[in-house]
Amino acid sequence: MSPRGNQQHLQQKAMAGLEMDSTDCFPIDDYIKVYYLPVMYTLISVVGLVGNVLAIIIYLAKLRPWKSSSIIMMNLAVADLLYALSLPVLIKFYITRNWTLGEFMCRFIRFCFYYNLYGSILFLTCLSVFRYIAVVYPLKAAEIRRTRWGILVCLAVWAISLIEIGPMLGMITLKQKDNLTKCLDFASNDPQVVWWYGWILTIFAYVLPLLVVCWSYTHIAGSLGSSISRNRPSRSRVRMLSILILVVFVLCFLPYHIMRLLRVDSLRRPGVSCMQRRGIHAAYILSRPLAGLNTFFNLALYTLAGDKFQQAFWSIVHRKERTSSTLSIIQSSYNISKKDHTKT
Asked: Coiled coil where (predicted)?
């Protein structure tokens, strides 16, 4: 056997040993996976589908012509919608515990999660930078709001996200266990392969954007604090928008990246006990839908981005109310006239 073949054989043997060891203690991670993930993914899928379809309709029908921030928000809504549409496949998988769609779809569905994750991180980072320029350098605000900047930024975000997670397509695999096919999550694949790549993703695709967001928020807060018009509603909205983006980075993205590194580390170190490994895996599973909850916060971002989105939303709601009222009046009139006709 060649040295490379021997190394692969040893890695497979080590992974098999981990799986055998993991059956010797209470499978808390399996229970969380079966009962927690379908519920959370169903919630995210329903809210993400309805909310982002409505947001896209508002941007397309009510908010033309677009500013650069509107284009970024529109692309963020599209990314969240694609993620929400991919979740029903995962929900079925976690309920049935068997993957039936083949290796390509396994890689594609897992890819959708990471494409949304790192695309959202970059979109939110760009929004922070645009807000920073508009607040700290108000003379440049008109230039940064131009449509071409939004288009260029969105094209760059989609391209960079694809480059960041492209290698992942070759790392996600299927596994046969107990006559069932498993579509492994990225962090559950060969730890020797995904360890350094996971670190690269964490540092360059999460920590670096987080530092940019913190830097932007610090300068925005300083500028608003020293501004004469700091109590104006627009200033308060900018402050809330910055805080919300920072909350998403810390609350949604930070636990996931920490637990992903710990999960891979627990698989690559031979001295980790079965219970400790399963506990780390359980915490990692809990953090995955938490990362997906950024779609909820993104829906709030659309309303904070400007008054026009709120006005467009309420105009659609009120139109539906007026339509329903009109239909009710017509129906009532029809029933009354029908009743009078019957009496005569």
From this structure: none
